[in-house]
Amino acid sequence: MIEYEFILPKMGESIVEATIINWHKEVGDFIEKDESIVEIATDKVDSELPSAVSGKLLKILYKAGEVVTVGSPLAIIQVENEEIRRQVQDSPNRPADSASEPPVKPGMAQQQYSSLIASEIPNRDIRPSVSTRFYSPLIRTIAEIEEISVAELDSIQGSGAGGRITKKDLENFLVRRSRTADIKQVEYQRPGQSRPKDQSQLDPNLVELVEMDRTRQLIAEHMVRSKRVAPHVTSFLEIDVTELVEWRRKVKDQFGKKYGEKITFTPLFIEAVVKAIRDFPRINASVEGKNILIKKYINVGMATATADDNLIVPVLKNLTNQNLVEIVRNVNDLARRAREGKLRPEEIADGTFTITNVGSFGNTLGTPIINQPQAAILSTGAIRRKPGIVSDDSEERIEVRDMMFLSLSYDHRIVDGALGGKFLRRVGDYLETFDDQRAI
Fold first, then answer.
1. Residue 259 class from Cβ within 10 Å (0-12 exposed, 13-18 middle, 19+ buried)?
2. Domain for residue 129, yes or no?
3. 272: which of 1, 20, 345, 426 is 20 to 30 A away, CA to CA?
4. Is 232 an annotated catalytic residue?
5. One domain, residues 394 and 299
6. Is 222 a catalytic residue?
C-alpha cells in the first residue's frame, strides 16, 4: 500500500486558488477511479474533481469553505502498490513517479508541485527577496501590499498542509502587527468574509448593507490586482460600420435557416480582432517577470453578464484558422452556458485577448480593465445612426451612417501607444471595409 496525494490541479494560468464547496466522500470510503469526490469553486466556475485512482480515502486535508492553492494536496488516498502506475499514468493528479523511480512517498507530489508553481508563476518581490521556504503567489502578493519582509514571513507558523502559510495565517499576523492602527481591508479578502462595520451605526432606513457574494469578491480581487500590476492606457476610435450592419440585416434570417444559429455582432468583432492580431502579434502577449511571452495561438475571451449581474469571461480557443460559422457557433454556445452557469473551469482559462461589448447595454464607449495576465482588452460600444461624411472621388456628402466607438486598454509595460494605436486602427479598418456582398 502507498499513500497517494490527491492534488488540486492547475486549471489555467490566471487561476491560483480554489474554494472547497463540498466533499462527496468521507474518510474511510472507497473511491473508484474517475469518481467525483469533491466540488470546488475556481474564479466564478463551480466544478467537480474526479479521482485519478481507486483506493480508500484516508484523510481530508481541507474542509468545506477553505481556500486551497493550486498544487496543494486536497486529500490522501490509500492505493495498492501494483496498481498505482497503471491507474495514474495519464492523470494530471498523478504522483511524480515513473517506471524507473521508487514508489511515491507522502509529501513528494506536494514538493514537486510547489516547484512547478514557483517556476511557472513569476514571483513578486518581497523585502528582502531571499527565502528557502515556499510561498504561494497569493501570499507573495499580500506580503508585497503589506510590506511584510521575508524574515517576518519566515517567523509565521503556517496552519496549512506541510506547515504552509494560508491567507488566514497572514491575516492573523497583520492583526497582531497592527493593534494600534486600522487594519487594512484590501482586495485579497477571503470570499465569504465580511468587512467590519463602520464605527458609527448604519441607519437601515437610509443605507442597505449588502455583503459581497463569493463571485463579486473574486471579480473585485481580479480587477484591483490588474490595475495595480499593469499601467493602463486606453485609446479610442470612432468607426463607420454601415456596410457591416447592412450585411448582417440582409443575411441574418438566411444564416439562421442555413446553420441553425443566430448571428450577432460579437462574432464579427471577434473575426476582425483575430485578423488584427495576426498583423500585430505582440498584442497577443503577457508579462512573466522581465520577459514578454508572445502567444502563437489566439484565444479570445468574451466578457459575458450572468443572470445575477455578475461577470464571467468564457474563452474561444484556437481561433487562428476558424471560419465565421465556427466562431458564431462557439460564441452562442459559450454565451448560453455562461448565463446558465454551466461552464467548465477550462472554458474560462488560457485567454490571450478579451473583448467586452458595452454596447449591448446601450453604452457608447467604455474604458475596460485588462484581464490579467493578458496585454490588452477591446471594448465595443453601441452602434448609433447619425450623420456622417462620405467621400467619393470627386465630392463629399453627408449621409446617415451606422457609427460606433472602439476603445482599447493595454498594458503600457509591453504595449506602447504606437502599437496600441495601430492595432486599434487595424481592427477598425477590418470592420469599416466589411464586404456587404459577402456570401454565407
1. middle
2. no
3. 345
4. no
5. yes
6. no
